[in-house]
Amino acid sequence: MIKDFVFGLFTIIFSSVVLVVAFGYPHESSYFPRAIAFFIGAMGVILFSRVTLAMCRKEGGFFSFLEEKQKLYSLVASKDNFYFIFIFCSLVVYLVLLYTFNYLVATFVFLMATIHFLGFKKIIKNSIISLFALSLLYFIFFYLLSIASMDSLFFNF
Amino acid sequence: MGLLDNILQGLTSMASVSMLAAILFGVVGGVVVGALPGLTSTMAIALLIPVTFSMEPQVGLAMLGGLYVASTYSGSLTAILLNIPGTPASIATLLDGHPMALKGQATKAIALATFASASGGIFSVFALLLIAPPLAEFSLNFGPLEYFLLAIFGVLVIISLSADSLIKGFIAGGFGLLFSTIGFHSLTGFLRFTNDIPDLYDGIPLVVSLIGLFSIPEVINMVKGGNTKSTQSQAEKKNPFSFFPEILKQKFNLLRSSVIGIIVGIIPGIGSSIGGFVAYDVAKKSSKTPEKFGKGSAEGLIAVESSNNAVTGGSLIPLLTLGIPGNPATALFLGGIMIHGMRPGAQLFTDNANVTYGFIMSLFISNLIFIPVGFILAKYCTLITKIPNAVMAPIILSLAVIGSYSIRASLVDVVIMLLLGLFGYVLQGFKVPRAPLILGLVLGGMAESQLARSLSLVQNNEFDFVVEMVTRPTSLVILLICIYTLYRGITQHVRNKN
Predict the structure, then answer these.
(1) Tens of pLDDT along B424-479?
(2) Please, which residues have CB within 8 angstroms of residue B13's CB and are 6 or more apart in sequence?
(3) Contact B418 A147 (CB under 8 A)
(4) According to the model, what pLDDT value does residue A111 have?
């Protein structure tokens, strides 16, 4: 229930922001996003109201959500979100490496490091797998499909 | 020459080694391309067209045709095994394909998807062969108003995708429609929600959003499973051909979904992903066990796969008869046809009958050949489930990155993919379905541009717009279908909740 409460609130805020931006555009170019934002906002209000009413009807009244707040804290600080943060940060680092070095170096380092940190600690097998995966990806995308190579600060190829 | 003579001549042209080799090459390439997220049939066709220049016309077209039909099918392999759609056509496959794999029925899911795809493709080839000209004439009845209503109908299909919460489904669909407004307005050219980032001027690429919304959350789920062999899906050791009788039990579902796919394919601009969703919606509403949909229903999977492959033949009908490409892949086919000095239209079926009917018969063969090719590749794909998550997850991430980059050779697309991955993870956490978001993203552009065109045709007079909607026969029929879909969907949701 707390998840729906938060999502309803998020939807209302998101649609409000979109509406503010969309009303800054000329009418003929923005009636569609305005209409969609209104619709999403209305759905968000319905969801939020429904959940709030349900919380009020619960034993303990609306403030029984304080018990749910504990659930929310444990959700935010859960191990699942740690994995997400790890994946997200590793991709950001990968992007920085792609921009700084070339695709080959960045991808090899990314694969080796991520496989290692996720628990596969066999270094030699890790290097072979990383090299194989890198070769396959490079062959398919840069050789077969002739994708334009990535511009980087150093070691352009 | 009569139709039968042309068909026999087309079949005769199959008896050459070069023709069969071209078809096989196209099918194998298509199966590989479609299975890899980030690679699309459009990309592969674009790269092969110059190669076909040196070939005989029917050989070149046969290779492109094989690639087109096989890649539309093989996106279902990764959708079933990894919950990551290989192509936009296989988004709807996620709904029941992956749940089947999680129940240990991966081989059954792949077998049913393969047979259903082949059946849908073959039905559409028959439609192309026998009734192409009148069907093409039917597609000319569709003006901006009809396209707008079709987009609305597609959005209403969201109802059937929002198993648990209708409101959340509508919100997700709304997000998709909003994301589709990023970039230039199709009529006024005004830039919206781009924050002066040039890479956003053309909007968010569909493939990038697919990769972000589905790959990243799935990789996180994989990583949560720990450093074990992937438990994402388990393939039972069974001969895939043993599931063929199950397809025969679903004859009516197969035929109905194929017809839906053919009709969706005929109407230019709709796309194969929509065909799958519409067929799924219809199958769910007509099913005796609708509660099984979304939890690994063979009926749902068969509906989606037969429809999205039937779109391939359907999309070639307006292309060959009227020169109107239905999607980017068939637009490239137009290039492939013109490179060989031919022009679409009636003369393609008269002066160039041997090439045209040879090409159509090659599609028939391609739809049969991808069955064994698909099973062989799927056998190797199921080996993927034995790879430890710690190894599989980074490889999928690097594939997601290069796949996103390859669309426009832009690192900004990779950033967009990452942000959408974050958004997809948040949606997953709040138990909001992602399929309606993709549907909204696909249909939003068409809905807005066709609405703008319809309004401009009546000088922005809303009353005249409504009058047009109810007085044009085609638009009235589509409007009634929309109203019925909305009514049926809401009452079914209410009934399920009670």
Answers:
(1) 988 988 888 887 888 888 788 888 888 888 888 888 787 888 888 888 888 898 88
(2) B19, B58, B354, B357, B358, B361
(3) no
(4) 94
- Cβ atoms within 10 A of the Cβ of B193, count? 18
d(CA B297, CA B80): 12
Inter-chain contact A84–B181, Cβ cutoff 8 Å? no
Q: Supply the pLDDT for residue B459.
A: 81
Half-sphere exposure in the Cβ direction for A40 (13 Å, CA): 29
Three-class HEC string of B184-220 = ECCCCCCEECCCCCHHHCCCCCHHHHHHHHHHHHHHH
Of B44, B120, B38, nearest to B87 by C-alpha is B38
CA–CA separation, A124 vs B414, rounded Å? 30
Structure-block tokens of residue B117: 């795809």
Cβ of B418 within 8 Å of Cβ of A91? The answer is yes
Answer yes or no: do B398 and A118 touch at CB < 8 A.
no
Among partner residues B178, B390, B448, which is closest to A118 by beta-carbon distance? B390
CA distances from B325 to A100, B328, B329 (A): 41, 7, 8
C-alpha A118/C-alpha A125 separation (Å) is 14
Confirm if A64 and A111 have CB atoms less than 8 A apart.
Answer: no
**8 Å CB contact between B157 and B278:** yes
Question: With an 8 Å Cβ cutoff, are A141 and B406 in contact?
Answer: yes
CA–CA separation, B187 vs B344, rounded Å?
Answer: 29
Alpha-carbon gap, residue B442 to A141, rounded angstroms: 25
Adjacent-strand bridge partners of B229 = B388
> Across chain A, what does the average pLDDT equal?
84
Give the three-state DSSP class for B328: helix
Q: How many CB atoms lie within 10 A of CB B470?
A: 10
- Output DSSP code: residue B388: B
Radius of gyration of chain B (CA): 22
- C-alpha–C-alpha distance, residues A107 and A123, integer Å: 16
Cβ-nearest to A29 among B192, B393, B415: B192
Question: Could you tell me how many CB contacts below 8 A there are between chain A and chain B?
Answer: 150
Do B360 and B125 touch, CB atoms closer than 8 A? yes
Q: How far apart are CA B436 and CA B177, in angstroms?
A: 10
Instruction: Write out the two tokens for B387.
Output: 């790879």
- Per-chain mean pLDDT for chain B: 83
DSSP state, residue B38: T
Could you tell me which residues are beta bridge partners of residue B191? B184
Q: What is the DSSP letter of B183?
A: E
Cβ atoms within 10 A of the Cβ of B414, count?
Answer: 25
CA geometry: angle at B251 spanning B250 and B253, to 5°?
65
Residue at token pair 């509660």 = B291
Model confidence pTM above 0.80: no
Identify whether the C-beta of residue B64 lies closer than 8 Å to the C-beta of residue B333: yes
SS (H, E, C) B84-104: CCCCHHHCCHHHHHHHHHHCC
What is the spatial distance between Cα B100 and Cα B80, in angstroms, rounded to a whole number?
8
Mean of the pLDDT values across residues B321-334? 77
User: What is the tens place of the pLDDT at every residue in B139-174?
Assistant: 677 788 888 888 888 778 776 666 567 888 889 989
The tally of CA atoms less than 13 A away on the side-chain side of residue B408 is 19
Do B145 and B468 form a contact (C-beta atoms < 8 A)? yes
pLDDT of A79: 65
Does residue B220 sit at the A interface (CB-CB below 8 Å)? yes
The DSSP string of B102-144 is HTT-HHHHHHHHHHHHHHHHHHHHHHHHHHHHHHHHHHTT--H
